[in-house]
Amino acid sequence: MTETRVHELETEEEWVAAFPVLNQLRTHLDEESYLDYLREMTAEGYRFFAVSVDDEIVSLAGVGVQVNMYYGRHVWVYELVTDADHRSAGHGSKLLSFVEDWAEVNNCELVALSSGLQREDAHRFYEERAGMERASYVYKQPLK
């Protein structure tokens, strides 16, 4: 029987196991940089959740609680990715639903995220499957 579970990744061993999936989204990262970022981010409240099927990580979400003037207290989803070989099996929806429940437990008013313009499949998922609404554009200015 197949066992599917949603769980938090808290140890470096778990983070290393998750790297191949996360690297499909964050292709610019090597494992060392990824681990350095996670050490710093988790110290600042970042939480890292996974869907595992028979102990194989197939989907990941990295989130944090934020408070600002326009969303109030909310969960920001920094990463949401499902392994390419496991997409369209409901793992992303399961994980996002878990994040929504986690947000409610943590007294948040909503879940928000940003998605790159080129990620059209992800946009369809967020709007059609997850029922999210497109709320804004995000702009950036790299510093020299």
TrEMBL record:
Q: Which Pfam families match?
A: Acetyltransf_1 (PF00583)
PROSITE patterns according to UniProt: GNAT (PS51186)
Q: Which molecular function terms from Gene Ontology are attached?
A: acyltransferase activity, transferring groups other than amino-acyl groups
Q: Which UniProt keywords apply?
A: Transferase
Q: Mind telling me which SUPFAM superfamilies this protein's record contains?
A: Acyl-CoA N-acyltransferases (Nat)
Cross-referenced InterPro entries:
Acyl_CoA_acyltransferase, GNAT_dom
Domain (N-acetyltransferase) spans 4-144
- Which CDD domains does this UniProt record tie to the protein? NAT_SF
Domain of life of the organism encoding this protein: Archaea
Name of the protein: GCN5-like N-acetyltransferase
